[in-house]
UniProtKB/TrEMBL annotation:
Extent of the signal sequence: none
Protein name: Nucleotide-binding universal stress UspA family protein
Pfam family, one: Usp
SUPFAM superfamilies: Adenine nucleotide alpha hydrolases-like
Top-level division of the source organism's lineage: Bacteria
Domain UspA: 15-151
C-alpha cells in the first residue's frame, strides 16, 4: 500500500473513489461524491469491478464472449454514473474498470492513485442488509488505507445536499 496520500500536496488534488455496481443505491454514493468534489475542489474516480467467472479450458470461447459482454456492461454502467455526476456537479469523473476480486481490485486502485482521499459507498436501507461490499469492508475498516464514508441509500438528494 502507498504509505502516504499525496492528495493535498502541491500539484495534486483530492479524489473521492466511488464503486459503481448493480445495486439500487449506487446513485447515492455518486451523488454524495459529486457534491463533495464541488466543495473540496477535488475529483471523482468511478470504479467498476468485473469479477471473473470460473471456467474450464473447453469453455474458453464462451468465457471470452462473457468477458466482452461484462466489459460492455461495465462501460454502460460507468456512462450512466458519469452522466449523473456531470449533471450534479458539472464534472467529468475518471473511469476505471478492473477485473478480479472486489477487495483486491479496490485496494489496488487506491494504492495506484495517491490522490484518492476517501472511498464513498452507499448502503442498502432494506432489511436484507447494507450490501456485500459494505459488509466486506466492515471487517477491514481498521486497516483500510483511506477513510470510508457510507451513505444511506434512503437519503434524498436534499438530505445529501445538507451533508455534503
Amino acid at each position: 500500500m502507498t504509505s502516504k496520500r499525496l492528495c493535498y500536496e502541491p500539484g495534486h488534488k483530492p479524489k473521492c473513489l466511488v464503486i459503481v455496481d448493480d445495486s439500487a443505491e449506487w446513485d447515492r454514493a455518486v451523488y454524495y461524491a459529486s457534491r463533495w468534489a464541488i466543495r473540496a475542489g477535488g475529483g471523482v474516480v468511478m470504479l467498476r469491478i468485473i469479477e471473473p467467472e470460473q471456467q474450464s479450458q473447453e469453455w474458453l470461447g464462451v468465457a471470452d464472449i462473457m468477458r466482452a459482454e461484462a466489459q460492455e456492461a461495465a462501460e454502460a454502467a460507468l456512462d450512466r454514473a458519469a452522466g449523473r455526476a456531470n449533471g450534479i456537479a458539472a464534472i467529468t469523473p475518471e473511469r476505471v474498470i478492473r477485473e478480479g476480486s472486489a477487495m483486491e481490485q479496490l485496494l489496488a486502485v487506491i494504492d495506484e492513485d495517491p490522490d484518492i482521499a476517501m472511498l464513498v459507498l452507499a448502503a442498502n436501507p432494506g432489511a436484507e442488509g447494507p450490501g456485500p461490499l459494505v459488509s466486506l469492508l466492515a471487517h477491514a475498516l481498521g486497516t483500510f488505507p483511506v477513510p470510508v464514508t457510507i451513505i444511506s441509500g434512503a437519503l434524498s438528494d436534499e438530505s445529501v445536499d445538507a451533508l455534503s
